[in-house]
Design a protein that fits this description.
By secondary structure, this protein is α+β, with helices and mostly antiparallel strands. The protein is 19% helix and 38% strand. The strands form 4 sheets. Strands 1, 2, 3, 8, 11, 12, 13 and 14 form an 8-stranded antiparallel sheet that branches. Strands 4-7 form a two-stranded antiparallel sheet. It has a two-stranded antiparallel sheet with strand order 5-6. The radius of gyration is 16 Å and the shape is globular. The two termini are 30 Å apart.
């Protein structure tokens, strides 16, 4: 099992880790718009592991047409991933060492505390900004991570990408997010935030599962 997390005040929002809150869709952070979408991507351990390897090498972002730049892993020990119990209470983090991995072109894999510059567009919507990996989880039946905005984005908030291998052998990919408009245009026209998120979710889901077409 590998878990890594980084948490400090350099992100530009307060509710760090809230994408894992069970009641996110009903009680999102103040002034933010929550979203969630899931898709069954196959069955079995092999599918789970291959999707996990892709996910942790930034495949969701790259497959969505975004460029990954200036990947800066955190130095020193990380923290265990932000998580919540069944009642929605935050579980206290603990320090742990994690092993850094790299993909074929030398880009560091996702790891807690990593800071990354993402550039690109999702249709008509700007997706550029600096992001931080809030937590990373690699467990027997769950793999994923969350990204929080640091600055330079049209929205402020967090998005998480989780793969779950269920007891019935199905593998599901779930993306969750909460976004608060940050730029003047997005504050003026809140619908842009929702449309941008829908476009991003569709691209992320299709990147991990090419058969994705519509919501299940």
């Amino acid at each position: 099992m590998r878990r890594g997390n980084f948490r400090d005040e350099t992100v530009d929002y307060a509710a760090v880790g809230a994408t894992q809150a069970p009641d996110l869709l009903h009680f999102p952070p103040e002034r933010s718009i929550p979203a969630e979408q899931s898709w069954r991507i196959g069955s079995g351990e092999a599918r789970f592991l291959s999707a996990g390897e892709s996910l942790l090498s930034w495949a969701a972002q790259r497959g969505a047409g975004l460029s990954i730049h200036d990947v800066r892993p955190a130095s020193g020990p990380m923290y265990s991933g932000v998580s919540f119990d069944a009642e929605g209470n935050a579980v206290a983090p603990s320090r742990t060492e994690t092993e850094q991995r790299f993909d074929a072109d030398g880009t560091p894999f996702v790891a807690g505390g990593t800071t990354v510059r993402v550039e690109g567009r999702a249709g008509a919507y700007n997706v550029s900004g600096e992001l931080r990996v809030i937590f990373a989880v690699e467990e027997q039946r769950r793999i994923g991570f969350a990204l929080g905005t640091v600055g330079g984005s049209v929205v402020s908030g967090e998005e998480s990408f989780m793969l779950d291998w269920h007891d019935n052998d199905e593998v599901w990919f779930t993306v969750r997010a909460f976004d608060a408009p940050a730029s003047f245009v997005y504050r003026l026209i809140p619908a842009f935030t929702r449309r941008r998120r829908r476009e991003l979710f569709s691209r992320y889901l299709r990147a991990i599962s090419p058969l994705y077409t519509t919501s299940p």
